[in-house]
Amino acid sequence: LLVKLTSAGPIFYKAERIGLDGIPFKMTKFRSMYQDADTRQADMIAANGGDAMFFKVKNDPRITPIGKTIRKYSIDELPQFLNVLSGHMSVVGPRPQVRREVDTYDDLVSRRLTVKPGLTGLWQISGRSDLKVEDAVRLDLSYVENWSLLQDIIIITKTIRTVLTGDGAY
Length: 170
Hints:
Number of helices: 7
Helix content: 25-40%
Largest sheet: 2 strands, antiparallel
Order of helices and strands: HEEHHHEHEHH
Oligomer: single chain
């Protein structure tokens, strides 16, 4: 309701993401940015060095005031449980990426696509948006290569703490 009351546009944001084996699916989130955010993205990437992989900037002007809060505490991600229920995502795994990012993958990084993308993963509990791209990729690949049920339980437990503190989110 706050998303709807504080900015024009729909409550939910649905966008294509690339999942298991490179198959696209529609991911659902609570909208945390202004409606024109997607049309401004290419300019934002160019203005911030042109690195499209895991693109995030602090104080992104496309984020709504309520969006800052729901992103900090990952509330915007809650609708992705529908993607988990539909089988497109897992609770734990590498975050699903957009086509523009996947198109930059080399053979090594494309290993991220050998597991279902997840709501949370190693890089979300290891610094979130504050991590360098290389570190996030390294953590995702480590997850893929070393998957275990115990590791998933640890990641879920640490995710709860990370979300409650809001550290590294923007």
